[in-house]
Amino acid sequence: MRTPRSLLTTTTTTTTRTVSNLQRLPYEIMSYIVNYLDIDEIFDLSLSCRHFQYLVREERFCKAIITAQASHTAEAQEAQRSGQFSRALRRVAKRRQALSRASPYLVGIIAFADSYEYIHGTLCYIVEARPKRWLRILDLHRSASHELVIDIPTLVHEAVPRSAKSRKYKFRVLYHANGITSCLFSFALPHTENWLLIFKADEQLIVATLQLDSTAKIFVRNNKDYLYFGTHSEEGADGHRKWVLVGYDIEKRSWFSRKMHLADVVGYDIGSTVCFEIIDDYFYGLSNQTDFEIRETDWNSYYHCFRFPLHEPDLKNKQTMKTEDSWRRQHAEGPIDDRWSFLKLEKDEASGNINIIESRKEWLTNQSGNQRTYYITGVIFDQDSEVDSNRESPTPERSLTIGRSTRPVAYLDKPYGSDSRFRSPENVHPGDSNSMALVYTRSQTHLRAYQRCCSTYLDLVDDISSSGSSGPRRLRLRTGFRKSQTYWPSWEYLESSYGLESKPESNEEPVYPYQPNRIYFWPPKQDESNGNPFIDDIYKILNPPDYQGGVNPFSDERSVVYAIGEDTNGLKALVYLSFDPAARLAGMLREKYVLGEQDMPSLPSNEAEESYCNFEAGTSRLTQRSLSKDMLIGDLSHRPLPSYISDAPPMHTMIMPPSEGCKPWAWAEKPMHMHQNFTRKIFTFAH
Asked: Which element (helix H / strand E) includes 95?
């Protein structure tokens, strides 16, 4: 947290206590100061003394902060309905801090399943006990106390009556959003038929069915009004397959007559080379490739990003980012290890702007080893542009206010001159490199994610293999978090530490407003000679003893879900970790807090001396050097919930009765983790 030094050092002594000048400032002046602080810094300031508690409790004050810094979060949307903006601010601050410091609030095994999907906070998992098969839908973000159960055989017989004669079929979930579930149903009678099933389980309503010509790389995206699905199935004149989109108007219950042929979208691996999303009222498409063949003469790589309004899937309404705004990299920067790459579109929590986020592991020029780096590129569309406009214009010099500095920073996010370019430090987050003491291989890193809201990359790593010792899998969370700083090193330091190229011609010295990454692990390492039984229980949740198969993870800005292994019945254990302080699951135990453990060897010696760890456990701040294992783990069994954590209201699912003469194919039940024969523990923490 950075505040004016003069305000912090000058104090006035009274007969009763010492009061800083900062505490004497009027309410209006403090409201001006906090405009220059992040939400997590405001929250830390509120914990420094009782005098500043109003910063996170006064509703009008908190509403202004949420509106300015987190207006596009789920917490803000809930606050708009309830009016509890102070609760929203505390939730946002604690969520971001918990994620960046690898300190989840909840962990547990919540189900066993044959297959599953985790989409926008909703868990959709299938349990097969032939001839019975169930699809179960549980809203984890809203801490639902009930889950929807769909009888798959009854559903498919009603949706596709001709499939009743087929004894064998395949059924998998493609997408779920706004209460609408899309599934792929395949059966052979005698030839294989593929059907897209779209339904609302809580209304016992089959929205639409469609027999598919192809299921190659099929995906579905929808909001409450429109649904689109795409396949990589159309063969072009050049012999390469292309993407094709089909849209559906949910309110009118009709398919759009015109398909969208995406002949200029290169790439076929969703999440790695291409990305499709519905955000607000637009369908977005993104590719990090622009040509099917690598041309030796083309040394620059560009993103291809487009959008069109959901209500009119027509090329006339399609907008495409101009080349000057979509520069990605130069091939001369070095080769890429594609196994580590991921690509996504993300909405900024403060501004609502859309950003491209890409992770690349590169062998950068003039460096002896490789490095994982996370790149952010803003999505810009010219509102007056024509279809597929690629008009070139001179590259402007932009100015950006980074951190709390008011100095204009000259930078370029695209080629400038011949080969020189400089990326804004705000848009480049250097991650792991092979110069670190401990480097995890790709096979040891099961989850790779990045959350820009808290400048954190998140991995799920197998820590036991790193030491070369034999034994069971030992999965742990690992985060890399960078925080802004009040001083900036010289350009020579940046050039040697981060492999940045020569600075562009400018009178301004580039600044780097971030400290080196702080690495956190969770749970803390166990002392082999004197282990903690509670930590052992957590490790058994993260690594179920009889489940040693593959790991299939998903994550978002507030949680991680992964399936692990198979038992003798072929079922996988579904493990859930939440960074949301308001997450609640019925039947969970609240016994202790467990904080993420900072990896001190990963920091330079001077940085390790100054690093600190914040938590509320009777004291406000302890240096990491004095933070012992006992301080990472503490007792909560006899303490009330902290005031900044509020219980989420219970969510009840109401199921509409089926049509007359129809057998019900959906109903509500208690979640699987609440069943009597479900013996796994679920722990919640408050730290």
From this structure: helix 85-100
Whole-number Å distance between alpha carbons of 544 and 537 = 10
Are residues 125 and 23 located together in one domain of the fold? no
Which range of 211-215, 293-297, 420-424, 681-685 scores highest in mean pLDDT? It is: 211-215
Same-domain check for residues 139 and 41: no
Name the nearest CA neighbour of 425 among 487, 379, 480, 376.
376
Closest by alpha carbon to 333, among 295, 292, 304, 361? 361
520 close to 479: Cβ distance less than 8 angstroms: yes
Let me know how long the chain is: 687
220 within domain boundaries: no
Q: Which two tokens stand for residue 249?
A: 């108007």
Contact 666, 149 (CB under 8 A): yes
Tally of CB atoms within 10 A around 415: 15
Q: What's the pTM?
A: 0.85
Provide, rounded to the nearest whole percent, the portion of the chain with pLDDT above 70: 76
Q: Are residues 178 and 121 in the same domain?
A: yes
Q: Is residue 321 part of a domain?
A: no
Does 606 or 220 have the greater pLDDT score?
220
Residue appearing with tokens 């637009």 = 282
Q: Where are the alpha helices (DSSP H) in 504-547?
A: 533-542
C-beta separation of 329 from 364 below 8 A: no
Q: What are phi and psi of 4, to 5 degrees?
A: -55, 130
pLDDT of residue 5: 42
Please state, in angstroms and rounded to a whole number, the distance separating the CA atoms of residues 381 and 322.
8
Overall average pLDDT of the 444-450 stretch? 95
Domain boundary among 85, 100, 115: 100
Is residue 384 situated within a structural domain?
Answer: no
> How far apart are alpha carbons 517 and 530 in whole angstroms?
31
Six token digits for residue 113: 């399943």
Domains of the chain: total? 2
Q: By mean pLDDT, which of 66-75, 149-158, 555-564, 630-639 is the weakest?
A: 630-639
* Crossing angle for the helix pair 74-82 and 59-69, to the nearest 10 degrees: 140
Quick: pLDDT tens for 335-354.
999 999 999 999 999 999 99
Q: Which helix (H) or strand (E) holds 187?
A: strand 180-188
Residue 678 and residue 571 in one domain: yes
Pairing of strands 147-151, 551-555: unpaired
| Rounded Cα gap, residues 667 and 118, in angstroms | 20
Confidence of residue 534 (pLDDT cuts 50, 70, 90): confident
**Sign of the torsion angle spanned by Cα atoms 229, 233, 235, 241:** positive
Residue 328 and residue 301 in contact, taking contact as beta carbons nearer than 8 Å: yes
Look up the domain containing 52 and give its range: 5-100
Which pLDDT belongs to residue 369? 82
| Strand ranges inside 551-625, DSSP E | 551-555, 559-564, 572-578, 592-594, 597-598, 612-614, 621-623
Average pLDDT over residues 600-616: 46
Tell me, yes or no, whether 159 and 120 share the same domain. Answer: yes
The CATH code of the domain that includes 73 is: 1.20.1280
Long-range contacts of the stretch 653-658 (C-beta < 8 A, 24+):
653/144, 653/146, 653/147, 653/148, 653/202, 654/202, 655/148, 655/201, 655/202, 655/204, 656/202, 656/203, 656/204, 656/205, 657/204, 658/204
Backbone φ and ψ of 124, nearest 5°: -115, 115
Residue 67: pLDDT above 80?
Answer: yes
Task: For residues 51 and 169, state if they share a domain.
Answer: no
Spatial strand order in the sheet of 319-320: 274-279, 282-287, 304-309, 319-320
Mean pLDDT over residues 31-51, rounded? 89
In this structure, is residue 17 part of a structural domain?
A: yes
